[in-house]
């Protein structure tokens, strides 16, 4: 069985016995001011957005910090902006806001992933930037973003950069983000309606509500055949895994149920699930194949196909 990287080890406990933190708290109103706070803290500050993941870790003494930089009051980080056939989702956009946005009508996989996250409270506070920056492969939104060839936008005191999500997520809970960088948003293509479609299918363990496995599919069809296929999976590898074997098997083929079924079986080649309380690795491989088939079929129908 693989070992996984644990969350940051405690070097010096900054919470008292009741879990209260004595760290400083900053609430800047610009990206530049937030980046300066991060740089000046020299790695000893934590960005906080919705706090849904970070604050429980702090209260449990699993994350130690000298200061919080709360980014929720930065107007430039909120909402969805359109430019040249692409859309940028600001980092502090919540799951609830993204699900209600027109982008989620056009890219169904995004809306479907947001809709299955926990409950209304978590969806109203948890943010897209928090999900991306934490890099947890069980988070539902990351697989659809990977299937959409998303780019992560980052800002630092010395400038801005964009990184493909594929290379931003470097391992379990590990990303390419530097400590003085802020995730400012993610950019995805806004596919033209008509011949493209997407879907997100997941199965969750009853006890935790978290994905045991999830699969996002995005397709574009031309003359009834697969022109573009992207498949990415939640919770079955160290990062949300791209299912290249499924993609290779289906591109250029007729978008039929038989082709989808055969291609979906190949998802096993690109995933590496572990045995845990949600199920055995063998079970998760079977589940991933079933979810791949379902999400591909739904995406094909939304693209105007009749599998
Ligand atoms: C009860 C419960 C159930 C849940 N169930 C699900 C589920 O079913 N599916 C699912 O996908 N998720 C689930 N989650 C997790 C949820 O998706 C995350 O907690 C949420 O997306 C994190 O966003 P946040 O804004 O709260 O991040 P925070 O908790 O504020 O931050 C998370 C991490 O990202 C960093 N960070 C945040 N924003 C930025 C930024 N802009 N730039 C740089 N770093 C940043 C923080 O420093 C921290 O390390 C659940 C959470 C809870 C509490």
UniProtKB/TrEMBL annotation:
InterPro entries assigned to the protein according to its UniProt record, in alphabetical order: CO_DH_flav_C, CO_DH_flav_C_dom_sf, Diverse_Substr_Oxidored, FAD-bd_PCMH, FAD-bd_PCMH-like_sf, FAD-bd_PCMH_sub1, FAD-bd_PCMH_sub2, Mopterin_DH_FAD-bd
GO molecular function: FAD binding; oxidoreductase activity
Compositionally biased intervals (Basic and acidic residues): 13-27
Coiled coil region boundaries: none
PROSITE patterns hit by this protein: FAD_PCMH (PS51387)
Xref: SMART domains: CO_deh_flav_C
Keywords of this entry: FAD, Flavoprotein, Oxidoreductase
FAD-binding PCMH-type domain location: 18-193
Region (Disordered): 1-27
Superkingdom field: Archaea
Keyword Flavoprotein belongs to the record: yes
Protein name (database record): Molybdopterin dehydrogenase FAD-binding protein
Gene source species: Halosimplex carlsbadense 2-9-1
């Amino acid at each position: 069985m693989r070992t996984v990287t644990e969350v940051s080890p405690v070097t010096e406990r900054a919470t008292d016995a009741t879990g209260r933190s004595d760290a400083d708290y900053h609430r800047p109103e610009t990206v530049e001011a937030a980046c300066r706070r991060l740089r000046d803290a020299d790695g000893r500050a934590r960005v906080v957005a919705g706090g849904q993941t970070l604050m429980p870790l702090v209260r449990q003494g699993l994350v130690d910090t000298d200061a919080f930089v709360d980014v929720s009051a930065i107007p430039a980080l909120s909402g969805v902006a359109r430019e040249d056939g692409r859309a940028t989702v600001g980092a502090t956009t919540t799951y609830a806001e993204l699900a209600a946005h027109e982008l989620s009508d056009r890219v169904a996989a995004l809306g479907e992933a947001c809709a299955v996250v926990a409950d209304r409270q978590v969806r109203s506070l948890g943010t897209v930037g928090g999900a991306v920056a934490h890099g947890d492969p069980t988070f539902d939104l990351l697989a659809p973003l990977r299937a959409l060839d998303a780019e992560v936008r980052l800002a630092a005191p010395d400038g801005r950069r964009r990184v493909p999500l594929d290379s931003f997520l470097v391992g379990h809970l590990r990303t390419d983000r530097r400590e003085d960088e802020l995730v400012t948003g993610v950019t995805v293509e806004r596919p033209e309606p008509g011949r493209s479609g997407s879907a997100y299918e997941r199965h969750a363990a009853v006890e935790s509500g978290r994905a045991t496995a999830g699969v996002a599919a995005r397709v574009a069809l031309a003359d009834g055949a697969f022109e573009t296929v992207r498949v990415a999976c939640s919770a079955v590898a160290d990062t949300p895994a791209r299912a290249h074997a499924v993609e290779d098997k289906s591109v250029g083929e007729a978008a039929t149920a038989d082709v989808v079924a055969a291609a979906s079986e190949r998802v096993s080649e690109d995933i590496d699930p572990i045995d845990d309380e949600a199920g055995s690795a063998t079970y998760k491989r079977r589940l991933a194949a079933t979810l791949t088939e379902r999400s591909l079929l739904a995406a094909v129908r939304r693209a105007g196909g009749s599998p």
